[in-house]
Amino acid sequence: MLKNTIAAMRLFKFLTLIILTIFIGSCGSNSEQKKSDFSLTSNAKKNTISNGKTLILTINNPKNHSIDSVAYTLNSKRITDNFDLSGSKLGKQTIKATVYFNEQSETTALNLVILNSKSPKIYNFKIINTYPHDITSYTQGLEFYNGILYESTGQRGKSRLRKVDYKTGKVLKNIDLDKAYFGEGLTILNNNLYQLTWQSGTGFIYNPDTFEKKSSFKYGKSKEGWGLCNDGKVIYKSDGTEKIWMLDPETLTEENYIQAYTNHGKISNMNELEWINGKIYANRYQKNGVAIINPENGAIEGVIDFSSLKEKVKQHPTLDVLNGIAYNPDTKTIFVTGKHWNKLFEVEIFEK
Description:
Residues 1-9 and 11-32 have low confidence and may be disordered. Helices cover 9% and strands 50% of the residues. A hairpin with a 4-residue loop joins strand 27 and strand 28 (343-351). It has two domains: 39-115, Immunoglobulin-like; 121-351, YVTN repeat-like/Quinoprotein amine dehydrogenase (Methylamine Dehydrogenase, Chain H, 7 Propeller), CATH 2.130.10. By secondary structure, the protein is mainly beta. An eight-stranded mixed sheet has the order 22-23-24-25-9-28-27-26, with no helix packed on it. Strands 2-8-7-4-5 form a five-stranded mixed sheet, with no helix packed on it.
C-alpha cells in the first residue's frame, strides 16, 4: 500500500511538472511582441530633422493590407502625417503610428532627433563691479533671495550652505553638510530652499532664513543632482546630461524634461542653472561659458563666453572652472564666479 502511494505521488509530481512547463512556455510565447506588418518612415535624413521643417510621415504596407485609418502621436500627443515641427521639443523623440485595418490594429514606431533650426547667438559681457569671494568655496549653486546671496558649495567634507553679503563677501550664515554628501545646486521657491547633492540621489529642503532642515527628497529618473532654478511655479533640475527636468515644487516629482540642443546636436554637462527673464541660463561643466536655453523646447538660443574672467582671479593650484550664476532682481544684473575663485563679478551681457 505504501509503495502504491509513493508511486502515485511521484506520478502526480511528474504530471504537475509537465503541466507547469507547458503553461510557462505558453506564457513566454504569448509575451513576445508580434512584429508589425507595417513600418514608419519620414522625410528626416538619417532620422534627424530641424524644428524649422515639416515632418512628412509614410506608412509602409508590404503585405498590402486594406488600411482603414492611421493615428500618429509624437510623445503621446496626436499629430498628422504632415506635421509642422516648429512647436516641438528638441532632442530624441518618438513618433508612433497605430494602423487600423481588417478590424484590428498594430503600432509601429520611429525614433527621431529634432534639432534647432538656428545656431546660437554669441554674447559678450561687460564687468560692472567686482566683489570679494571666498577662495575656499567650490561653488555649485548661487542665487539671490530678498537681496541676500545664497551659495551652495561642493566637495565631500567641505560642502556648505551659506548666506553671503555679496558686496563685502561676509558670510552671514553657514551650515556644513554631512561628510557623506557632495553639495550641488540650490534654488528658493515658496519660502523653501532646495539644495541638491551630487551622487547620493538625495536633496534637502530648508527654511531659507534659519537653515532649519525641513525634509529631504529623492530623485526620480535623473540619477544625479547638478543644478537648480525656478520660474516661480516649476523647479528645473540638471543632472549632468543634456536633460533638464521639470519638478513639481510640492512633490518634487520629475514630471517632464527638455533636452538642450543646438542646430548641430545635444549639449551635455548642464550644471548650475539660473532663471533670467524667461530663459534658463546654464553653466556647462568644464567650459567657461553659459548657455541660454529656451525652457519650452530646449533650444540653446545663445552662448556667453566668460573665458577671460578666469584670468582676472588669483591664480593658484586649486583654481577651477567658472561655475555659479545668479540674477539680482534689485540691480537687474548677472553675477558670476567660479570654483575656488577669489572674486565675484557683476556683469552686463550684450550680443557680440
